[in-house]
TrEMBL record:
It catalyses: ATP + protein L-histidine = ADP + protein N-phospho-L-histidine. InterPro entries: BphY/WalK/GraS-like, HATPase_C_sf, HATPase_dom, His_kinase_dom, HisK_dim/P_dom, HisK_dim/P_sf, PAS, PAS-like_dom_sf. It is found in: Membrane. It comes from Sporolactobacillus kofuensis. This is histidine kinase. Residues 349-566 form the Histidine kinase domain.
Amino acid sequence: MKNQRLDRKIWMRWGFVIAGLFFVVFVSNEVIQIALLHQDQQMMDERKNWIESFVVRDGRLQIDRENAGLIHFSKKGDVKVTIYNRERQLLYDSTGMQNTKLHQSIGIHQVNDHLRYIAPLQADQKTVGYVQIEGKKTVIIGLSLIYFFIIIGGIALLLYRDYLVRSYAKPIRFASRMAENLLEGSYNMIASDHVKRESVLRLNLAMNRVSDAMHELSRSYRRQQDSMSTLIENIGNGLIFVDGSGRINYVNQTFKDDFHTPAAHWELADYHEVIPYENVRQMIDEVFDSKKKLAQQLHLTVGIERKHFDVSCAPIINKHHRVRGIVVVFHDITEIKKLENTRRDFVANVSHELKTPVTSLIGFTETLLDGARDDKDLEEQFLQIMLHEGQRLQSLITDLLELSKIEREHFELHWVQVSLRELLDNVLLIFKEKVTTKNIKIVRKNGSDGIVLGDAFRIRQIMINLITNAIAYTPENGTVTLSIQEHEQDVQLIISDTGIGIEAEQIPRIFERFYRVDKARSRDSGGTGLGLAIVKHLVEAHGGTIHVTSTPGKGSTFTITFLKSPPMIG
């Protein structure tokens, strides 16, 4: 269909051009004929004037005496001369005709290739007769041939023009399509370098160079864009870019993750409308006004949490010293703040825990030195107290060293197949005297052997710490229940007691260092407040989990899940 339309347009163009050529020839011929006719009329006027001056004498026609002159004039001018009287009757005819009367009107008439000129003969401004001069028209020899060559030349020029157009149109159209593809990011078109015309060859080579340069530039831009995008998305800090008009152009994934928001409606929105933190909006406003970098530590609410962020706003200034945009970076320092608080609390707790036994040791030592050692009963009592405080101090230091060892980066477990049932039987022998003293009943539920992969010594340590707590926080005549439940992928060790229980709000904190549910009872039992922290780290080192349920006044249940094949060795 497209080819048919193209053919129709070509034929229409050719028809228009040929018609135009014929029109030009026709107009040119008419102009030339009019010019020749005008020239012939001037010549006829001159001949008529000569004849008039020759044959009109004394106000009338005198032809008889001038007959010889008229014949000579006719032969010399190669014309026919006919003279008529005032009544249009023939008086003289150079051809010898005697019976002709003038019927045509005055003027010049074309008869085939001749002209017939009729004009009045006047004397004293009166018509005394008429003259008719008939001669050949002036003709330009070869005019038709000239017209023919004009038409042929026009057609030849048109053909040559079409040839030139075809010679340049195809490479130009190709270059145009190639340029469009380059603008669209497609670089698969290659211009031919085997062409005859130097100008076309130079165009093709230039287009190929442009294509190569743009392709390389595009690849470089994509690499930089990918690198920058990867860097921005994985920089570890939340980032917002605000343009010069105050609209948000970009929000990276880290910001969305940190603030738990998809931020889908943020882009292209005014930052005053979408950023929910007034202090952040004020920082951006201040940077727009001052054009200087600004940094602050802010407490921002994220969901139900309050997080600490180091927020910095940096303006992007153009060469006209105008703000093109602002980069807002959110560095989450919540964990750093928590670590600082934990260290501060740790130092305070350690100092407090060490102060009590050390104070007791110093106090009782000073008392003994002041004379109390003379009383043997009092001396023995003080020495027993000092021994107890020393043992407590030793336990605290041992647990601190153990916790420090477990938290080291290169802490390793000795992986073997362990039977939780056999390990639990051996551990219970340690508590035989203690449960007898408090009259606590140990209930062992039947279950499987509970074969897991782990460090037998560390699992034994987990059991000892948990059972110690269960016995310590269970009053006399209470019950501690132990069971092992085996599943397809894991094995659970469940330790339940009928002790004092734990309040719901305290459960998330019981694995913190030095945190005690009942501080007085824990200290009286010799606890250091580090047992559950050690348990948590050891369970996580085994790839397991620990779960606690408790009802105040009724008891607590600790469920430890060990994987049969931990990921670290699987």
